[in-house]
Specification:
By secondary structure, the protein is mostly helical. Helix content is 67%, strand content 0%. The protein is built from 8 helices and no strands.
């Protein structure tokens, strides 16, 4: 398929080759935002899936089916940030810069892949990674010496507020999407009812 030759080439193509070609084209069209792919839930429709859900479902049920491996990616990132980073360029600005780059790459990948089944989880993960990136960026600025050094008494408070708001993100998301908030807004617009 795709190589020319018309119907003769199509007739000589095996089912497996055709399936691979279709999947490649579909992924390409999905990346180009030409074809929306529906979300596929973990539904336990096969015996193997039911066993996996019963045994270790808590590790992958939050993710889309095609991103089942994302928990391994996250554990690798956390291991890198907590253990491996302590041995790389210990105590230097370069150590903080490498940590920032790891977090930035993870943020970019998370925002592109959107691995979680719920959009709210994707948003919370992206926000948490963003807060960590901002914190390490501030660390880079405070470590630096020379004329470009940034001094501010308010910037640490902003960083603490951003990091603290990561904990508040689920609450803010719940309030923003609650039906009682809509009812309250309706009552404020039409108080006579």
């Amino acid at each position: 398929p795709g190589g020319g030759g018309g119907m003769e080439a199509l007739a000589e193509t095996s089912d497996e080759e055709m399936r691979r070609w279709i999947m490649t084209k579909t992924r390409q069209m999905q990346r180009d935002n030409l074809v929306p792919m529906p979300f596929v839930y973990w539904d336990g429709s096969t015996e193997g899936e039911r066993k996996a859900i019963a045994r270790i479902g808590s590790l992958f049920m939050a993710y889309k089916v095609n991103c089942w491996w994302f928990e391994l990616f996250e554990m690798g990132r956390k291991l890198c940030m907590t253990s491996v980073m302590s041995f790389i360029l210990h105590g230097s600005p370069a150590q903080v810069a490498v940590g920032f780059l790891v977090l930035w790459a993870s943020l970019q990948y998370t925002m592109n892949a959107k691995p979680y089944a719920l959009s709210s989880l994707n948003g919370m993960q992206a926000y948490a990674l963003f807060a960590q990136c901002i914190t390490l960026f501030y660390g880079l600025m405070s470590i630096s010496t020379g004329p470009e050094r940034v001094e501010s008494q308010y910037l640490p408070l902003v960083i603490v507020a951003i990091c603290g708001s990561v904990v508040a993100y689920p609450i803010m998301h719940w309030i923003a999407n609650s039906s009682w908030l809509d009812a309250l807004a309706h009552r404020l617009r039409d108080p006579i009812r």
